[in-house]
What we know:
binds adenosine monophosphate, alpha+beta, binds glycine, Rossmann fold, Dna Ligase, domain 1, globular, D-amino Acid Aminotransferase, Chain A, domain 1, about 400 residues, five-stranded parallel sheet
Amino acid sequence: MRVLVIGSGGREHALCRSLKLDPQVSELHCAPGNAGIAEVASLHDIVPTDPLQVAELAEKLGADLVVVGPEAPLVAGVADAVRAAGIPCFGPGREAAMIEGSKAFAKDIMNAAGVPTARSYTCATPEEARRALEEFGGPYVVKDDGLAAGKGVVVTGDLEQALDHARACERVVIEEFLDGPEVSLFALCDGATAVALQPAQDFKRAYDGDEGPNTGGMGAYTPLPWAPEGLSEQVMREVVHPTVDELARRGLPYNGVLYVGLALTSKGPKVIEFNARFGDPETQVVLDRLETPLAGVLMACATGTLGEQPPLAYREGSAVAVVVAAENYPADPVKGDEITGLEPTEHAYVLHAGTAVKDGRTVSAGGRVLAVVGTGPDQESARNNAYELVGRVRLRGSHHRTDIAR
Ligand code: AMP
Ligand code: GLY
């Protein structure tokens, strides 16, 4: 099978690593990729959000399957263009991807499907925003309606700060604050059938103790020994199946991965957000534990045959990912510095995100530079193995959280 992966982050490195390990995969390509992905796939320098460029590349390579990683190409209609060229594609089309591309659309789908989520208002003016904020009271939750790379959400006890964010955005969703631990659950979907992957937990804030600004995610681990029994089944029943059915009813069959971000509240799991793609860095740990060869599963999603697949199998033990971020991430990350100490150890390895090769050296090229994945028979050993390798990575000014999976 010839597979083309679209994207250039840590999630795409994790996808490529797992695809490379699948004996069914004869050729692996990635566009545009990064310095780490170049070690397992052939890279192609195209604009990943240009549907025509992606479809043309897939045709030229004779790809049997295209896997679209990030949200921007999905929302731009890349999956539609690939399918229109007659090539199976893992990833929702432009309209279905609006489940991530518009918070208001996601809320509309959830309300129509009876999915448990925070009560909310979509507000187009500062006056509407103020009314909604006063009704719900603090802590205030203000979400930019459009795509914002994980930085469009402000959660604050300060009404003025909440209003400032609402004023800075064109349209916002304001919602009640959900209290409780967060879980990321990925559901693989083939348009009709959906299957849950093992849940993971992500650490969204930049600094230890969940302090500092929201980021794309600073670390993750799986499995969740503390998760209530039957959580995945409950979320599939109450959230994923009704959502996928509602999308299909609207003529938008969902094909790809539906990322369900949940708060486990005292009144049960409630949806914080949907994404139309795998989470980053949760994918790095979930795919590490997935034993079932990945290409066949993604191909089954792309061709509507997920229901014929055997149940997914996982490796025993735990995986922990720690993100190493550039100086000044998430505000204005410093780029172009050399990174060393990337060699794997017995129980840990590096997945690249914002990296590039310059004059034969690996340099930083993004805010989240890389994730170290550690594994072990239990969470503590996996965490220790991850942090041991984090300690060897050298990047001037970089920072990471020291409390992932603690
Ligand atoms: P989102 O981009 O929607 O995932 O929001 C980013 C982060 O903001 C989430 O992971 C939560 O930590 C926090 N957040 C978003 N919505 C809520 C909410 N309704 N209640 C509490 N925290 C929230
Ligand atoms: N880790 C959160 C996300 O991928 O949106």
